[in-house]
Amino acid sequence: MKLNNHLCGQWLQGAGEGVPLLDPVSGEELVRVSSEGLDLGAAMAYARDQGGSALRAMSYEQRAACLGQIAEVLSANREAYFDISLRNSGSTAADAGFDVDGAIFTLKTYARAGKVLGAARQLKDGGRVALAKTDVFQGQHFLTPLQGVAVFINAFNFPAWGLWEKAAPALLSGVPVLVKPATPTAWLTQRMVEDVVAAGILPPGAISIVCGGARDLLDHVDARDVVSFTGSADTAARIRNHPAVVAHSVRVNVEADSVNSAVLGPDAVPGTAEFDLAVKEVVRELTIKSGQKCTAIRRIFAPAAVATALADAVAARLSGMTVGNPRTEGVRVGPLVSRAQQAAALEGLAKLKLDARLVFGGDPDFVPVDADPAVSAFVQPALLFCDKGLDAQYVHDVEVFGPVATVLPYADPAALVAMVRRGGGSLVASVYSADAAFLCEFIPAIADMHGRVMVVDGVIGNQHTGHGNVMPTCLHGGPGRAGGGEELGGLRALAMYHRRHVVQGGSSLLDALCEGAADAALLGA
Question: Any idea which residues carry the catalytic annotation?
Answer without folding.
Answer: 255, 294
